[in-house]
Amino acid sequence: MKALRLNALAIALGLGALLPGTTMAASDEPISVIQPPQSINIGMAELGKKLYFDPRLSKSGFISCNSCHNLSMGGTDNLPTSIGDKWQQGPINAPTVLNSSLNVAQFWDGRAADLKAQAGGPIANPGEMAFTHTLAVDVLQSIPGYVREFKMVFGKDKIDIDEVTLAIAEFEKTLVTPNARFDQWLLGKQDALSAKEKAGYALFKDSGCIACHNGEAVGGNSFQKMGVVEPYQAKSPAEGRSAVTGKDADRFNFKVPTLRNVEMTYPYFHDGAANTLTEAVDIMGRLQLGRTFSAEENANIVAFLKTLTGDQPAFTLPILPPSTDATPRPKPF
Amino acid sequence: MKALRLNALAIALGLGALLPGTTMAASDEPISVIQPPQSINIGMAELGKKLYFDPRLSKSGFISCNSCHNLSMGGTDNLPTSIGDKWQQGPINAPTVLNSSLNVAQFWDGRAADLKAQAGGPIANPGEMAFTHTLAVDVLQSIPGYVREFKMVFGKDKIDIDEVTLAIAEFEKTLVTPNARFDQWLLGKQDALSAKEKAGYALFKDSGCIACHNGEAVGGNSFQKMGVVEPYQAKSPAEGRSAVTGKDADRFNFKVPTLRNVEMTYPYFHDGAANTLTEAVDIMGRLQLGRTFSAEENANIVAFLKTLTGDQPAFTLPILPPSTDATPRPKPF
């Protein structure tokens, strides 16, 4: 990682101009091949998949993790900001859950250290699933199908919220998207990318995008200011990292989003204000790099970005164990 | 079917008392083995599966067919009445989509003749998906992944709403749930049911439940008055079949719901007012048959009903083709 960051820095400083045209080994590129998950507890992940799809973790019985991080749609809801309990409007764009295990931290402001810490947030957020951890556990504990499966995975009769969030996180770790055309190219398949896509990648490096969007996830590994050269006029009141650190210097610092599967994760930015990749590339160029891309340059970068779409998670829709007479009923209205 | 109806009638008239204890061939039973789907256009069903899971068929971009007919939860939302666009409260309980191809007609009042006619309803209902057929087709037509798939299936470049609803219906025809323990018993596996479950089935026939809940779907094949012996105090304003026929005699006539997978399709009745099977069996006994089941009788019937849970649909979660720059964006707020 250190070597990679230095490489990225060198490119951001303009040294990247030396790179295009030369034949590089994949290991020399500032973007690295995304790896399929390496160490998964399958029983725990299967349990987590059920929980991920279970709207009974919400007060209404209507909203599950998958409602806003929809695995049919790039792990997002494709809305500028999400819909919460009683149709409340969320303050920020729902980031993709795909490849989120590679993030330096979770949420746009990084307030959760890892996926487990993140998973508990929306359940208890009054604007999202609007439940409490205690009530969610009470529901699960009343369902024999869950009690048995938790016992198999964790060896205990009593379910607790740590087990719930651990299982959801384990499932989320499986949501990696390998085999993008860009990865095929990194792995040596020269014709996996067109000339236009390669030109887009060269420009992505030369112009400095790569300084923040690098590594396995093409982002997700640092916090950066939104609006470096020009301030960004956000539609969201969120101020980013400063909400976590309390430091004024961190205002409008947000986690750099992954660009993996970016073709599927529209609309863009923490406020979801950019509808298209063309718009997003244009705004990023001007506000972050002080550079106005020509229409052709923009199109080339967009063509490159679309090569980052990997194999989407393929799994059987989980069937949820039914509630019993003892299960507390949801309160939708 | 005629033989079956006569048989059911005989049982309703009390002749069923002769049956229990005798060893019957499955073909003599008033409930028949549910058949896996017989004739499916796989390409059309695969397209329909995507559409079924696609929230872009709603105005908000948030509600899909699967939101209220959730295939992880018995093809229902497990809520008394459903949540529609902007969190509107629906007027009636969402019936299960499982085995709905066996219904005599669709919706509680039978206002749609078949699944295709049904599928168009919620898309354009202002209280449900709140879209229009034209706008839904415009969205699909802007997505090359869909245009190609519609062309493959229907042979035309231009998508229309008939193709959309036909494809959804074809997918729904696959949602049959064979292999319930009860079917295994019908097919000759004597120990597939416990003594208690067999006693419950005998009582279900003897007491007259079978008069309406019979056939492959254990219901779904007739309209009957809710509240025969005593009137039903509904929490829903719906008056049932009379809304379709205009006949006063049809007031409070509703389609008899299927009892297949009834353990998963709580809460019960057209107003979703019965939370548990115990409650539902008790109310049905008193209001429809003038009979108060003892606690043991009730428990036996409930035990029988739980043997009607079949194999749930098992399929890979569909990945939806992404929107393009030209795709009209949803209006969630």
UniProtKB/TrEMBL annotation, chains A, B:
UniProt cross-references to Pfam families, sorted A to Z: CCP_MauG, Cytochrom_C
Cofactor(s) demanded: heme
Matching InterPro entries: Cyt_c-like_dom, Cyt_c-like_dom_sf, Cytochrome_c_Peroxidase/MauG, Di-haem_cyt_c_peroxidsae, MauG/Cytc_peroxidase
Record has Electron transport as a keyword: yes
Co-factor note (free text): Binds 2 heme groups.
Cellular component annotations (GO), alphabetically ordered: periplasmic space
Subcellular locations according to the entry: Periplasm
This protein's record includes keyword Repeat: no
Residues annotated as signal peptide: 1-25
Residues where heme c 2 binds: C209, C212, H213, M284
Classification via PROSITE patterns: CYTC
Post-translational modification: Binds 2 heme groups per subunit.
Single GO MF descriptor: heme binding
Keyword annotations from UniProtKB, A to Z: Electron transport, Heme, Iron, Metal-binding, Oxidoreductase, Periplasm, Peroxidase, Signal, Transport
Cross-referenced PANTHER family: CYTOCHROME C PEROXIDASE-RELATED
Protein name: Cytochrome-c peroxidase
Species for this entry: Denitromonas iodatirespirans
